[in-house]
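Duplicate of #3305? Posting structure anyway:
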């Protein structure tokens, strides 16, 4: 089984589980496997610039800070010129709203999701 197949399998099992514990464990497993897959490719993937990140609306990005990382989905990029072009709105994989600030781009890194 390839890593990609394992991710698909974990997501499929999570959707079909009748037991909540089983579902949560497979969602968590899929997340870990996606993180592993991303970390293996991270060296080949340069962090997104602010302008590139602003073009990722409705797309998943991988956020990292040191050893910590998480999938985010950008849901709103304010229009330039409205006085609020230094922030991008996103949600975590658990649905929590968060903000990406331009000033923090050196501290935090954002990567495109690799599509196979």
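Output from current build:
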């Amino acid at each position: 089984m390839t890593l990609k197949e394992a991710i698909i399998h974990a997501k499929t099992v999570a959707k079909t589980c009748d037991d909540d514990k089983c579902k949560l464990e497979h969602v968590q497993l899929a997340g870990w496997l996606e993180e592993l897959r991303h970390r293996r490719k991270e060296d080949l993937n340069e962090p997104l610039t602010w302008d590139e990140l602003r073009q990722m609306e409705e797309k998943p990005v991988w956020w990292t800070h040191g050893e910590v990382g998480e999938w985010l989905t950008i849901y709103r990029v304010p229009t330039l010129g409205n006085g609020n072009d230094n922030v991008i709105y996103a949600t975590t994989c658990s649905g929590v709203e968060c903000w990406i600030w331009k000033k923090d781009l050196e501290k935090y890194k954002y990567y495109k999701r690799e599509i196979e």
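Confirmed duplicate; merging threads. Strands lie at 60-65, 68-76, 87-92, 97-101, 109-112. The chain has a mean pLDDT of 81.
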